[in-house]
Structure prediction request, 601 residues.
Amino acid sequence: MSTHLEQYALLSDMRTAALVSEDGSIDWLCLPRFDSGAVFTKLLGDESHGRWKLAPKDGTVVSRTYRDGSFVLDTEWETPTGTATITEYMPTRGDITDESDLIREVTCTSGEVEIEMDFRIRFNYGESVPWVEQVTIEGRRALQATAGPNAVYLTGPLPTPDDEAHRASFPLKEGDTLRWDLIWALSYTDKPERDNFDKLLEDTLEYWDEWSSTIEAKGPYADYITRSLLVLRALTDHATGGIVAAPTTSLPEEFGGERNWDYRYTWLRDSALTIEALIAHGFKNGAMAWRGWLLRALAGDIHSLRIMYGLGGELHLPEHELEHLPGYENSRPVRIGNGAAEQFQGDVVGEVMVALAKMREAGIDEDERSWNLQKELLEYAAVNLDRPEHGIWEMRGELEEFTHSRAMMWAAFDCGIRAVEEHGFEGNVEKWRKHRDALRKEVEERGWNEEIQSYTQTYGSTEVDASLLQLPQIGFIEYDDPRMLSTVERIEKDLLDEHGFLHRYRTQSGKDGLDGDEYPFIICTFWLAEQYALTGRDDDAKRIMDGVVAVASPLGLLSEEYSTEHGRLAGNYPQAFSHLGLIRAADALAGARPGREYRED
Prediction:
């Protein structure tokens, strides 16, 4: 059985991220970027695919906590002979973009302990066994592991070769401390230099403290809001401003199934919704960084618009399978890249336009380039107005007309009109109003099914979809409009399970073109809690909210899905989408109105 996702802690330097299991094993780390090849891939395989375990012999974890407002992890261990603390973190490095570190420090806090290490570096997702040799860095011994252009250096007390691993045991008595630094660098450049580890920790804590101290969170779920905002920051590349959907690939939507996707890229939709959450809590700088990323990624050819890009704005993300990996819980295939990047999804322009409108409303200056981009986005929407598509959930079946996407196109044109009418920008309001009004009429006529008294997933169907809960969020309809309340009833009937978790849609309909099933979606469940909170169903909203936060990891991390059947988190982890859903629902329960005000055309 694979390690449960709840047992993993996240470390991040805002260039990449590591997952550390409760038993002290780093089972996932891509270097130097979130979307680079992994050097530890046990998460999707076994020890032979790379891991770095560091733990006291015969030890038991007593507590595991992040230092307030950071991703510096302290794990307290107890053994029959003593106690120890292991501190792990990835230093924030400011403007440095060509190196990444992961530091692990062990202190014996009482008695005596024996620290055991098992170190197996494997490049290219566990496929490449590196050449390993001892070198010297500033007078200190280090291991250098090299494969092609990549090199990793391990400094500190070194393990010794043992078959295809490096192992060692280190006896410590009270007050003793050992430290290791894992450093990535290009194999053809000079060896990296490190001289002041205390300063690295101090600077890292100072960065996270400075960032988290400005968080505006209130209400009964304020702590969850704070950790979720921190997760969103941890998944943001500090150099480019791109925001990854998750730091992992191919964690399954169904254990043993084929619904396994690479989420280490920047979705326009996910990142736009993330920006809305950040703006709502006072983080304007992150929003501006994302807008800069957006302008670079979309460049001068708006008609080549993709739904997702690489962290640096890369256009092509070809999907392929890693046949040497068995997958998490034997869920194959393991995929790298994402073929959905080639899809047309009609809602994306609306998501981006809403986020940019939120920035305007928050007082963030709009420059000419940004407004020109928005006019181009609306032209793109107009050109593709009648184009069938794959929808928000990236269906791989037949192309359809999705009600949610059509409403999002409505929102795109509405945002353009508002920018002109309320902020004084120039634009073709007459054309935009024509499209907006036609879309509203179309959605109300073709997206509404009188027989089942509900908006539907696609035009002409009787299936519903959790994405319909976004209609009031974008101001298309009031939360308490009779049509919306009736749609909520149908969603509850078809998609809500007995444990209070909501599915995206019924996979049994066969519309998504995939085999197998999937577990309830966490962000959809939060959307339902938000809907309840804003229509006077406070008890129902709190019940749903409490049910979801109860299944988060002990460190407050959420994946994409939750299997009520297995009582486990599932899907890529931690997931930005889930955390931004938590923020919206918690805000609604605290009395805020995270959606846009309803506006009649």
Notes: The longest strand covers residues 100-120. The mean pLDDT is 94. The longest helix spans residues 403-423.
